[in-house]
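Exam prep: given the inputs below (a chain plus pyridoxal-5'-phosphate), describe the expected output before reading on.
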Amino acid sequence: MNPVEVPLARMDNVDPALMDELLAAVERVARSASFVLGSEVEEFEAEFAAYCETREAIGVASGTDALALSLQALGVGPGDEVIVPANTFIATAEAVSIAGATPRLVDVDPDTHLLTAPIVERAIGPKTACVIPVHLYGRTVEMDSLLAVARRAGLAVVEDACQAHGARFDGRRVGSLGDLGCFSFYPAKNLGAWGDGGAVVTADPELAGRVRLLRSHGESPRYHHHVPGFTSRLDAIHAAVLRVKLRRLDEWNEARRRAAVALTQSLEGAPVRTPAPVPEGRDHVYHQYVVESTDRDGLRKHLGERAIGSGIHYPVPIHRSAAYASLGLAPGSLLAVERLAGRICSLPIFPGMTDDQIAWVATAVAEFAPATVTREAA
Ligand SMILES: *Cc1c(COP(=O)(O)O)cnc(C)c1O
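Solution:
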């Protein structure tokens, strides 16, 4: 087989028909000269709420802001602790800090790489106000048991669905299961804008109203300010782009799932641990396809030499980052997360990945001979 180039992800500019449609949408906004809030954003919010099968969607400036404004809308702030898994994008913890609360970083299940109800239960203390389950890589957290533990303890639940747009748990869309659900539209996400963007979804009109106030100077109506807020709105150009792409999201997620099934089959016998199977009623929309290797850095070098992209999501667990050193969590304090950080490798996955590309990735991984002396995370 001839080597083919395989990027880690695919952007819109490789699809000429999609590009035409997106550029027409951008032109429509430019000609309307309505760039901030307005009908394009309102239409997108209505369509995204319907897509998530919940009542309200509020467009904001980023996924980080979606999380921070959600916490503030719940009244989570100084003196409160929020349970956050230590292997997520740092934004999950940052949002807690932005709200003035303290992240309580916890370990994850070594198979799914996700937060579980027992882990949450063990972490609950007198200051715990909220928990943020992260549907990391696009895989759904076990929400039934987690919600039960949270409800019993009186904790609010904010879903971080920034990597899981469109995933379903027991038939329901993620983001609609907790009190609020948060999405990022960073360009590389499963649903991406042409810049930064985000959304909060909720079935609670009161919480929605508070997020709406906070994202735009606490204003309602114009120049009447009820609370000190922010400039954190979804831009109309991004909303227009997102409306076009939302119509294709289910199809794209299905293509990601198909590529993942093919990759997992082709990787049988290869020297990596493939993603854990997805149980009935659970979902995975493969924002990332993450394998584990005892020689991850060697594997990435081997792939790079064969024009195959790869990534590490994420190399430094949040509790080991300089940003959160002040929490004082020593090496070895969150074992599963630390072990994963030394082993995980994201392989290419994107809608439109060809059979040749899947075969080339699988062949390259199968041919890799891991070094026997491994460099595991301390
Ligand atoms: C991308 C991401 C965020 C933050 O989104 P931004 O739009 O980049 O602010 C938060 N949590 C997770 C899990 C993410 O992947």
